[in-house]
Amino acid sequence: MFFKQFCALFVALALISCTLAAEMSMTQSLSAAWKDGDKDFSMWEVTATNVCGKTIRDAVFVAESNFNLRNVTGNDIWGVEPTSKVNRFHFPAYISERGIAHNASIKFGYVNKGTASATFSICEVQTM
């Protein structure tokens, strides 16, 4: 009996996890690449699209790997605002006020050291 309850809970949590993971889709495209001396840099445009069917008020974009900004003072990432945690960003206030409608997108960009894009995940999605 306990095993069946455990399996049912596990399946329910897996479904919820998949549902939450599908609230926004994300793509990145290379806008520019250049060399400065012996160092490579690349500029990336990120498009995050609302696919959840509700208006999204805010979401957190977490730079998981290969996130090496050329200039760490903040000039090399735009279109999002930093949170209090390192390598985490969220919607600017003016977007959070009206939200992102279903099938609409938010774009942001960054300049990375090297020629590869960073890997981002999306979490803490808040709907209206």
Automatic annotation (TrEMBL):
Species for this entry: Polysphondylium violaceum
Residues in the signal sequence: 1-21
GO terms of molecular function: carbohydrate binding
Protein's name in the database: Carbohydrate binding domain-containing protein
Carbohydrate binding domain location: 24-115
Keywords tagged on the record: Signal
PANTHER family on file: CELLULOSE-BINDING DOMAIN-CONTAINING PROTEIN (PTHR36560:SF1)
